[in-house]
Design brief:
154 residues; alpha/beta; Rossmann fold; 5-stranded mixed β-sheet; two-stranded antiparallel sheet; 6 helices; elongated
Length: 154
C-alpha cells in the first residue's frame, strides 16, 4: 500500500541516513467479507433468504384487540430462536404490510379474529403467497426447513 504510509506520515532512516517512505503490507480480514456481503445485498436487491435476513419474521396484529395473541405468537418465535419482531403500532394492516415489504422481511405473520379463535396464523411470504390458518408449529416447521436447507426462495 503506497497511500497509508503517506497518510500516517511513516518514515524510516535508511543505510544512507536519509528519510524514506516505506511500502506498507497489510491484510484486512473483514474487508473482503464486507465486500462479499455488499455484493450479496446488491445481487439480491436486499431480498435476502430467511436464513440470512436480519429479521426473518414480523408479527402483524390487525388491531389492538389481537395484541395479546400476537404477543404469544411472537414469544413462541423468539423462544425458538427466530429473528422476529412484532409491529404493535396503531396503523392500518395495509400500511404495516407495505412497510414490512419495503424492509424485505421474508415472512409476515398476520393475526386477526379468525387466527385468534382457531389458534392459527396467516403467513404471507415475501413472494406474496399466503398460507392461511396454519398452526404455529406447522409454520415453524416450514421455517426450520427453509433455514436448515438454506433455501433461497421459500
Amino acid at each position: 500500500d503506497f497511500s497509508m504510509p503517506e497518510k500516517f506520515d511513516i518514515e524510516y532512516t535508511g543505510e544512507d541516513n536519509q528519510k524514506h517512505r516505506p511500502v506498507m503490507l497489510h491484510r484486512v480480514v473483514l474487508g473482503s467479507l464486507e465486500r462479499f456481503i455488499g455484493i450479496l445485498i446488491e445481487n439480491y436487491s436486499g431480498n435476502l433468504p430467511p436464513w440470512l435476513a436480519p429479521m426473518q419474521v414480523i408479527v402483524l396484529p390487525i388491531s389492538e384487540k389481537f395484541y395479546e395473541y400476537a404477543s404469544s405468537v411472537y414469544k413462541i418465535l423468539k423462544d425458538q430462536g427466530y429473528r422476529a419482531e412484532i409491529d404493535n403500532r396503531v396503523e392500518s394492516l395495509s400500511k404495516k404490510i407495505k412497510q414490512a415489504e419495503l424492509a424485505k422481511i421474508p415472512y409476515m405473520v398476520i393475526i386477526g379474529q379468525n387466527e385468534e379463535q382457531s389458534k392459527t396464523v396467516t403467513v404471507r411470504k415475501k413472494s406474496g403467497q399466503d398460507l392461511r390458518n396454519i398452526k404455529i408449529k406447522e409454520f415453524t416447521g416450514l421455517l426450520d426447513d427453509t433455514i436448515r436447507n438454506k433455501k433461497i426462495n421459500p
